């Protein structure tokens, strides 16, 4: 047992030492600890399981907004967190309380008996335990990495699966080809369970369709069974049940149209009405995804600068950010970027090269795997983006404000950098 009154942060720190690797994809350790806990994953409300490379969190946020508008109590599990670990676990709509989180983590630590287990695995077990103890109508469950061997993939019969767009990311764990990566994502499919599929490259869709056919899993595919588009400043969604004419998503960026489409397809399958669908696109909240920073010390330092924050970090996210910038009113734009050394830096920055005047590179404070600022700057220059190095985000912002006081600044490249800034800026 942990010492009386030990905080969740202290317990989480100790849980990080239970396995020598941060990521070690396998389900064996999950089955072991879940069995020791009484298999809470078998006592959950109906589960919606969401995999994909980009758009998982936004899609989940929209579905949650839609279900809650219909009066449902919804559990949600997402990762990573930005400011506090508590963000990962929502119980019936509310972030988990500190005393409850500490007790759950301690119960999982005790059930594990010091055996090797990754941080994500044991904290996912804690989430399942929490969900099994609190009444709700549904669980929205976001995959951490991949799908087939992800710690969340222990739900025998979810109500619905969703696969958002698949693209290159985490190749060291999921494979070097889109076919391999799509195979890992399609690993969440279960026999006879329907799956909403977001827009996909042909080779990814072929893998998903093949896996679904072998399991008898009905697919609800973008471009085949549902369509979403922006028309005359509205979101137009259509499927076999008819047409929805809705406001544009409140989450900014053209890519949110297709995320909204997947969320609406899911809500329609789950029986959601028009009011829930409207709430999905107007009430969703998902920080650090093209988030405008208007408050806090950083925003005050920016003064006349239009300040934005985004945690995207792979080539598909770079393309989405580029499209988001194109959709905004024209304004001189500068980037502040910090990334991890496991990412395709040039691939992320290439779509942004023609949309920004400069990039200021920073290292991510406190992150062992941060890419040195000089390496990020070098990658930016390699794709044709003028770049310099700064000590930190504040230093970078001061330099930009001095020479372009009315410009737009986008801080980007990592959810870890985004989380740190949100913590520091309240």
TrEMBL record:
GO cellular component: cytoplasm
Pathway: Cofactor biosynthesis; tetrahydrofolate biosynthesis; 7,8-dihydrofolate from 2-amino-4-hydroxy-6-hydroxymethyl-7,8-dihydropteridine diphosphate and 4-aminobenzoate: step 2/2; Cofactor biosynthesis; tetrahydrofolylpolyglutamate biosynthesis
Catalytic activity as recorded in UniProt: (6R)-5,10-methylenetetrahydrofolyl-(gamma-L-Glu)(n) + L-glutamate + ATP = (6R)-5,10-methylenetetrahydrofolyl-(gamma-L-Glu)(n+1) + ADP + phosphate + H(+); 10-formyltetrahydrofolyl-(gamma-L-Glu)(n) + L-glutamate + ATP = 10-formyltetrahydrofolyl-(gamma-L-Glu)(n+1) + ADP + phosphate + H(+); 7,8-dihydropteroate + L-glutamate + ATP = 7,8-dihydrofolate + ADP + phosphate + H(+); (6S)-5,6,7,8-tetrahydrofolyl-(gamma-L-Glu)(n) + L-glutamate + ATP = (6S)-5,6,7,8-tetrahydrofolyl-(gamma-L-Glu)(n+1) + ADP + phosphate + H(+)
GO terms for biological process, alphabetical: folic acid biosynthetic process; tetrahydrofolate biosynthetic process
Enzyme Commission code: 6.3.2.12, 6.3.2.17
Disulfide bond as UniProt keyword: no
Matches recorded under Pfam families: Mur_ligase_C, Mur_ligase_M
Name of the molecule in the record: Dihydrofolate synthase/folylpolyglutamate synthase
Domain Mur ligase central: 50-266
């Amino acid at each position: 047992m942990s010492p009386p009154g030990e905080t969740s942060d202290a317990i989480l720190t100790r849980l990080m030492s239970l396995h020598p690797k941060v990521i070690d994809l396998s389900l064996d350790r999950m089955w072991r600890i879940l069995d020791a806990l009484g298999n809470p994953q078998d006592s959950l409300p109906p589960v919606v399981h969401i995999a994909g490379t980009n758009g998982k969190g936004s899609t989940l946020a929209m579905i949650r907004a839609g279900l809650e508008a219909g009066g449902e109590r919804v559990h949600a599990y997402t990762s990573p967190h930005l400011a506090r670990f508590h963000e990962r676990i929502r119980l019936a709509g509310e972030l988990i309380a500190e005393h409850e989180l500490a007790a759950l983590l301690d119960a999982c630590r005790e059930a594990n008996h010091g055996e090797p287990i990754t941080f994500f695995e044991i904290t996912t077990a804690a989430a399942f335990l929490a969900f099994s103890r609190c009444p709700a109508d549904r669980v929205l469950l976001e995959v951490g990495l991949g799908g087939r061997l992800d710690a969340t993939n222990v739900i025998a019969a979810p109500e619905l699966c969703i696969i958002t767009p698949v693209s290159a990311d985490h190749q060291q764990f999921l494979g070097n080809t889109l076919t391999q990566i799509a195979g890992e994502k399609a690993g969440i499919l279960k026999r006879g369970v329907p799956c909403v599929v977001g827009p996909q490259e042909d080779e990814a869709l072929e893998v998903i369709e093949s896996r679904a056919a072998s399991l008898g899993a009905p697919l609800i595919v973008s471009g085949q069974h549902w369509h979403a588009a922006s028309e005359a400043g509205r979101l137009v969604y259509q499927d076999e049940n008819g047409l929805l004419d809705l406001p544009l998503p409140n989450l900014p960026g053209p890519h949110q149209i297709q995320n909204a489409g997947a969320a609406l397809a899911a809500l329609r399958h789950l029986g959601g009405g028009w009011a829930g669908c409207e709430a999905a696109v107007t009430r969703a909240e998902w920080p650090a995804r093209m988030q405008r920073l208007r408050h806090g010390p950083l925003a005050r330092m920016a003064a006349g600068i239009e300040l934005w924050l985004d945690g995207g970090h792979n080539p598909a996210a770079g393309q989405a950010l580029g499209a988001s910038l194109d959709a905004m009113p024209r304004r001189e734009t500068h980037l502040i970027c910090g990334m991890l050394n496991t990412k395709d830096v040039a691939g992320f920055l290439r779509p942004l090269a023609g949309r920004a005047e400069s990039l200021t590179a920073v290292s991510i404070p406190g992150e062992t795997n941060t890419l040195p600022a000089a390496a990020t700057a070098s990658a930016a220059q390699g794709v044709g983006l003028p770049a310099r190095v700064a000590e930190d985000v504040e230093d970078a912002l001061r330099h930009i404000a001095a020479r372009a006081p009315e410009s737009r600044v986008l801080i980007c490249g990592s959810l870890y950098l985004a989380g740190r800034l949100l913590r520091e800026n309240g």
